[in-house]
Amino acid sequence: MSALIDGITGGRFAVFGRAGMDMFADPIGVKSEDAESFRADLGGSSANICAGLVKLGCRSSLVTSVSDDAVGRFCLNRLRHYGVDTSFIRMVGGEFRTSLAVYESRIEDFQNVIYRNGAVDFEVTQDDMDKVAYDRFSAIISAGTVFAAEPSRSATFRAFDNARAVGLPVIFDIDYRPYSWPSPDIAAEVLSRAGEQSDLIVGNDEEFGFMAGGIDKGFAKAQELAQKPGRIVIYKMGEKGAVTLVDGQKIHTGIYPVTAVKPNGAGDSFMAGLLASIAAGHDLETAVMRGSACASIVVSKPGCAPAMPTTSELDAFLASHPGPTAPDQE
Predict the structure, then answer these.
(1) How, if at all, do strands 20-26 and 37-43 pair?
(2) Residue 37 contacts residue 293 (beta carbons within 8 Å)
(3) Per-residue pLDDT averaged across 49-67, rounded?
(4) 34 within a domain of the structure (yes/no)
């Protein structure tokens, strides 16, 4: 585990996956179809992780493709606004498009309309991956969505190989989105393959269950992956908290209840908070709890990237919150 922790502690992350534009209905509570105005900001799981890491004191570079149009340039501008390095992002012309998500700040009947036809982030190539300056980083992060289509799938496995060649640990957020994949069977096989090649795997009970062929088999799948010495597997269970599996240990942690205004963005913020907290010197259990606090902060505010907390905001939340729930020990 020392190589993984050392890599995270270095605090310099290359992140693979998509950037997108989020448009969320304003004000809080209004449904998208009733909205007269929308706020726009950065979205996309990997871009959100990048923004969250920088806000928490780390350095991040996004490796992806964006469309050579106003929306692609919007995403580049917002990434730079948050301090994310964009030097490994390639602009692609033609009919490929940067993802767009239209959603609202409400829990009841929450709607998230995602436009992913001709998604430009799937156009990342092996050549793009070979141009990444891996020696600038201490670890790489990949979201599972990159594996849903070619050439991005083969390109990201190439990036895994390139990272391993220079001793960088691989961090994997399963991030299963059914609408992106040609079939569930292909998704299960490819995501399992990515998990086998990773040093830190984060996913929820449904995602591990999907990889295992049934929700009831998810925890066993997580345990199986955690059998590799030094690998960390974090099995998230929503309101029941999480179980962190490493070197035969089971670390149970709770959550920080909040009044949520939306359900999305929590996983991205959890990942950023977890990694930044390890980088800041916190032990693994504390880092998981700080990641959980970040997730709670994000769901309590509109938007995703703009809702990611800074270190001072995270510390203030922890100081004022009455404490986490008792972890589920089942």
Answers:
(1) antiparallel
(2) no
(3) 98
(4) no
What pTM did the predictor assign?
0.97
What is the count of structural domains for the chain?
1
Beta bridge partners of 22: 41, 101
The CATH number of residue 305's host domain is: 3.40.1190.20
Residue 245 is part of which domain span? Answer: 2-17+45-61+123-313
Tell me how far apart the alpha carbons of residues 21 and 2 are, in angstroms, rounded to a whole number.
37
Encoded tokens for 205: 């009970």
Q: Give the contacts of 249 (CB within 8 A, at least 6 positions apart).
A: none
Q: For the chain, give the mean pLDDT.
A: 96
DSSP structural state of residue 97: B
Q: How far is it, in rounded angstroms, from Cα 278 to Cα 171?
A: 13
CA angle centred on 267, ends 64 and 205, rounded to 5°? 115
Q: How many CB atoms lie within 10 A of CB 127?
A: 11
Neighbours of 111 (CB within 10 A): 12
Q: Return the structure tokens found at 311.
A: 């270190």
How far apart (Å, rounded) are the C-alpha atoms in residues 151 and 122?
6
263-294 tens-digit pLDDT: 999 999 999 999 999 999 999 999 999 999 99
Q: Is residue 91 part of a domain?
A: no
Asked if the structure places residue 319 within a domain, the reply is no
Within a domain: 290? yes
What pLDDT was estimated at residue 330?
A: 57
User: What does the alpha-carbon distance between residue 159 and residue 170 come to, in Å, rounded to a whole number?
Assistant: 10
Phi-psi region of 82 (alpha: psi -120 to 50; beta: other; left: phi over 0): alpha
Q: Does an H or E element contain 89, and which?
A: strand 89-92
Q: CA-CA distance, 257 to 265, in Å (whole number)? A: 16
Helices H / strands E in the chain, number of each: 11, 13
